[in-house]
User: Fold this.
Amino acid sequence: MAKTRISISLERGQAERIRQHAERAGMDVSAYLVHAATRQMAESDAIEEQFAEVDALIAQAERAADGLPAEPVQEPVAELTEQERREVEKALGLAHGRDRHDRRPGHAA
Assistant:
């Protein structure tokens, strides 16, 4: 099989690390880089195959969204009552790891 030469540019430190790793693997630099690239390509292909169905659904949703208005029509928002505001603050505190006394669980007051 005919071979093709590819030239790459690296920082000196990167090149030395690659040489060291290739040597430890018992390979020359070219074989090591081909092996690493082939392995990465196989991994990428497997990931793309695994998520192809999800990617297709996302693309379908994006195409469907193209026909939607740029900004959704906003209904007027009613002001919160004081009780609703306290409930929201309490819920946010819990979500952010604060208990009903505004302390983070597991921490001294």
